[in-house]
Design goal:
By secondary structure, the protein is an alpha+beta fold. It contains 24 helices and 24 strands. The chain folds into six domains: 3-58, Helix hairpin bin (Helix Hairpins, Orthogonal Bundle), CATH 1.10.287.610; 70-310, DNA ligase/mRNA capping enzyme (D-amino Acid Aminotransferase, Chain A, domain 1, 2-Layer Sandwich); 313-417, OB fold (Dihydrolipoamide Acetyltransferase, E2P), CATH 2.40.50.140; 421-497, Orthogonal Bundle (DNA polymerase, domain 1), CATH 1.10.150; 503-572, DNA polymerase, domain 1, CATH 1.10.150; 590-657, Rossmann fold, CATH 3.40.50. Bound molecules: zinc ion.
C-alpha cells in the first residue's frame, strides 16, 4: 500500500471512530488504540506534506446530530495535545518558555474529567444558552437539558461581564451512574457502557423530562469568550470568579511552576481511586491569560495547555467465576470472569490469573470484590482482593484435576498445571493451529476462528500436516454453511502457496515453548537447514549467543516428543534452507530499534534488518551493536549510551541499511 493510500484509509478509519465516539456514544476501540491511529495519520501527513482541511486531523470531534438547534461557539472548543510523562511535559514547558520569553511560567493543574464538554453563555449575568461541544466549532443547543442541573446558577451575581461563555464538563457520579443503569435494566432497557456515554446520551436526549430524572453533575474550568469588561487576568482569578458565582469548580486544582507539576499530576493520579467520578488525566494550563494569548493555538489545539494522560486505570468489581483455560502448549491457566468494567476505554470481562502461585497469592474467591488494573496496552490484571467486604457468600475456587478440554489428568509443573495430551487435546490443537497459520508463521490466508473450529471439530485436521491434505474434503468444505465456494477455493490456493516456507517462518510456526519470531530467526541463521536443527543437542544449542538453557531444553524436548507431527509436515512441505543474501552486510549484528520513523514502520525495519543478515533485538545489552533511533525514543536511548552502543539516526538509516 502506498503512503497516500494509507493516509486515505487512516482518515476514513479515524472519521469512523470519531463518529462512533462523539455522535453515537458507542466507541468500538480503546482511547489508546484511537490515539495510535491518529498519531500515525498525523505523522504520515506531516511526512508526505499531505495536509488537507477535510482531514480529521484538521477538525475536532465530529459533526453533531440534527435534532437539536445548532450554535457556533464564540471561540472553537479545541482539543488538547497529550503528554504521557515528565519528559514530554518538560518539552512542552520549554516551548512555552521560548514563545512567551518568560521562564518559570506558572501553571494550573486540574483533573481531566471523562464526561461531556459543554459551553454555557451568560448575557448580562443571565444564563442564555448551553451548547455541547459538537465538532468544536458548532454544537447543539441543549439549554433546557442543562437547566435540569440545579447546581448551575441561572444568574451570576458577582461582577458578571456583558457576555461570558464558560466551559465545563457534564458527568455522572459513579453511584448515580450505577443506579441509573439499574433503573434502565429493570425497565428492560439497554444499560450505558460508561458514565461518559451516559452523560452524553442524557444530555442529547430530546426529552427534558427524562433528563430531569437523571442526576447529572458538572464542573466548570475554562473561558470560551468574554466581553471586554471581564476583569480576570489568569486562570486562578477565573477559578475564584467561578466560585464566587456558585459555579461548581473541582477542589483539586493546583498552581505551580514546571518543576512542581509532575508531583501535582501525581497527586491527582493518586486521588483517582477515591474519586466518585471518572478522570483520565490532568490538564495543565499556562495560568496567565496574557501569556495564553501570546501562545495562541495551532490548527486544533492551544499551545498553552496540554492533557497529561494517565497510563492506566483501575476499578473494583466482582468476581463471578474462576475458570481454567487450556493454551496451545497445554498450560492450564486460571482466569476470573468479572462483572464487566470499562478500563482505559476497553470493556473488560475476563482477567487472567496467570498461574497457581498467583491464585494462591491473591487468595481469590468467587464473589470476591477485586481491584482490576489495566495499564496502557498491557493485559488487565487483578492487583488486590478486598477482603474487608467479604460477607460470607464467597466460595473457594475449584482447582481441576482433569483437563477441562480433554479430561486428561493434569500434571503440576512448578506453578503451572499442564495437560500433556498434546494435539489429542482439542484446546491445544486449536491453539496450535491458530498460531501455525498466523501471519508471522505459515501465513495462510482465509483461515479464521470459525473455519478453524470447523476443521478441528469435523476431524479434518488432527495434526498440522492434515491442513495440506484438505483437498479430499473439498466437497464437504464447499457445502459448509457460511463458506462460499469461492472462499474455499481461495483457501486452497493460499495453502498451496505456503508449501515452501522459509526456515525461520517454519521454525516459528511450530510453536516451540518460548521460541518466538526472534529466536526462530536466530536458529535459522545458526543451523541453516531444518534437519540440522532437528538433530541439534543441548550443547549444540548452547553454542549460540542468545539462547539460554531453558529454551535449549525446550527445543530438544520438542523434537523428541514431536507433539505437532513434524515428520508428517516435512513430507508435505518443502522447507527452504537458510540462505544469506548477497547483500547481507549486517551479518549477525545485534540491532535494537526505538522510537518512530517517518519512512518505515518498525515491522518493516525489522524485516529489512533480517533480510540483510542482522538480528533485531528487543532490549539493549552489552551485546547490542547498534541502536536505531527514531522520534520520541524511550528509555532505550539512555541505556544504549550507558553501554556505549552505536547510534543510527533516521537521517543515516538508509546508508546504514544500504537501501
Ligand atoms: Zn487436555
Amino acid at each position: 500500500m502506498s503512503v497516500n493510500d494509507e493516509i486515505k484509509n487512516l482518515r476514513l478509519l479515524v472519521e469512523k471512530h470519531n463518529k462512533l465516539y462523539h455522535q453515537d456514544d458507542a466507541p468500538e476501540i480503546s482511547d489508546e488504540e484511537y490515539d495510535a491511529l491518529y498519531q500515525r495519520l498525523q505523522l504520515l501527513e506531516k511526512h508526505k506534506g499531505n495536509i488537507d482541511t477535510t482531514s480529521p486531523t484538521a477538525k475536532v470531534g465530529s459533526k453533531p446530530k440534527r435534532a437539536f438547534e445548532k450554535h457556533s461557539h464564540l471561540k472553537p472548543m479545541l482539543s488538547l495535545n497529550n503528554v504521557f510523562n515528565e519528559e514530554e511535559f518538560l518539552k512542552f514547558d520549554e516551548r512555552v518558555t521560548k514563545w512567551t520569553g518568560h521562564s518559570l511560567t506558572e501553571y494550573s493543574v486540574e483533573p481531566k474529567f471523562d464526561g461531556l464538554g459543554i459551553s454555557i453563555s451568560y448575557e448580562d449575568g443571565v444564563l442564555n444558552k448551553a451548547v455541547t461541544r459538537g465538532d468544536g466549532q458548532t454544537g447543539e443547543v441543549v439549554t433546557e437539558n442543562v437547566l435540569t442541573i440545579k447546581k448551575i446558577p441561572t444568574t451570576l451575581k458577582h461582577n458578571p461581564p456583558k457576555l461570558l461563555e464558560i466551559r465545563g464538563e457534564i458527568f455522572f457520579r459513579l453511584n448515580d451512574f450505577q443506579k441509573l443503569n439499574q433503573t434502565i435494566k429493570n425497565s428492560g432497557g439497554k444499560a450505558f457502557v460508561s458514565p461518559r456515554n451516559a452523560a452524553a446520551g442524557t444530555m442529547r436526549n430530546l426529552d427534558p423530562k427524562i433528563v430531569k430524572d437523571r442526576p447529572l453533575d458538572v464542573f466548570f474550568y475554562g473561558i470560551g469568550g468574554q466581553s471586554e469588561d471581564f476583569s480576570c487576568k489568569s486562570q486562578s482569578e477565573f477559578i475564584e470568579f467561578l466560585q464566587k458565582n456558585n459555579l461548581p469548580v473541582n477542589d483539586k486544582i493546583q498552581f505551580g511552576v514546571a518543576s512542581s507539576i509532575p508531583n501535582a499530576v501525581k497527586a491527582v493520579l493518586d486521588s483517582r481511586d477515591d474519586l466518585d467520578y471518572e478522570i483520565d488525566g490532568a490538564v495543565v494550563k499556562v495560568n496567565d491569560f496574557a501569556n495564553q494569548e501570546k501562545l495562541g493555538a495551532v490548527s486544533k489545539a492551544p499551545r498553552w495547555a496540554v492533557a497529561w494522560k494517565f497510563p492506566s486505570s483501575e476499578k473494583y468489581t466482582k468476581v463471578n467465576e474462576v475458570l481454567f483455560s487450556v493454551g496451545r502448549t497445554g498450560v492450564v491457566t486460571p482466569f476470573a470472569q468479572i462483572e464487566p468494567v470499562l478500563l482505559a476505554g476497553a470493556n473488560i470481562s475476563n482477567v487472567s490469573l496467570h498461574n497457581m502461585d498467583e491464585l494462591d497469592r491473591l487468595d481469590i474467591k468467587i464473589n470476591d470484590t477485586v481491584l482490576v488494573k489495566r495499564a496502557g496496552d498491557v493485559i488487565p490484571q487483578i492487583t488486590k482482593v478486598n477482603v474487608d467486604v467479604r460477607d460470607g457468600s464467597e466460595k473457594n475456587v475449584n482447582v481441576p484435576n482433569h483437563c477441562p478440554s480433554c479430561g486428561n489428568v493434569l500434571k503440576t509443573e512448578g506453578p503451572f498445571l499442564r495437560c500433556d495430551n498434546g494435539m489429542k487435546c482439542p484446546a491445544q490443537l486449536f491453539g496450535f493451529f491458530e498460531h501455525f497459520v498466523s501471519r508471522k508463521a505459515m501465513n495462510i490466508e482465509g483461515l479464521g476462528y470459525k473455519i478453524n473450529k470447523h476443521l478441528i471439530n469435523l476431524g479434518y485436521v488432527k495434526e498440522a500436516a492434515d491442513l495440506f491434505k484438505l483437498r479430499k474434503y473439498e466437497a464437504e468444505l464447499k457445502s459448509l454453511e457460511g463458506f462460499g465456494e469461492k472462499s474455499i477455493d481461495n483457501l486452497f490456493e493460499s495453502i498451496e502457496a505456503s508449501k515452501a516456507p522459509s526456515l525461520e517462518m517454519f521454525i516459528n510456526s511450530l510453536g516451540i515453548p518460548e521460541v518466538g519470531e526472534t529466536t526462530a530467526s536466530a536458529l535459522a541463521r545458526f543451523f541453516k537447514t531444518f534437519d540440522k536443527l532437528k538433530k541439534a543437542t543441548y550443547e549444540d544449542l548452547m553454542q549460540m549467543d542468545n539462547i539460554g538453557g531453558v529454551v535449549a531444553q525446550n527445543i530438544v524436548d520438542f523434537f523428541m516428543r514431536d507433539p505437532v507431527g513434524v515428520k508428517a509436515l516435512q513430507e508435505v512441505l518443502e522447507i527452504k534452507n537458510y540462505e544469506v543474501a548477497a547483500d547481507a552486510h549486517l551479518d549477525n549484528l545485534k540491532i535494537v530499534i526505538t522510537g518512530s520513523f517517518q519512512e518505515f514502520s518498525r515491522d518493516e525495519l525489522k524485516q529489512i534488518i533480517k533480510n540483510k543478515g542482522g538480528v533485531p533485538s528487543a532490549s539493549i545489552s552489552s551485546k547490542t551493536d547498534y541502536l536505531i533511533l527514531g522520534e520520541n525514543p524511550g528509555s532505550k536511548l539512555k541505556k544504549a549510551q550507558e553501554f556505549g552502543v552505536k547510534l543510527i539516526t533516521e537521517e543515516k538509516l538508509k546508508d546504514f541499511l544500504k537501501i
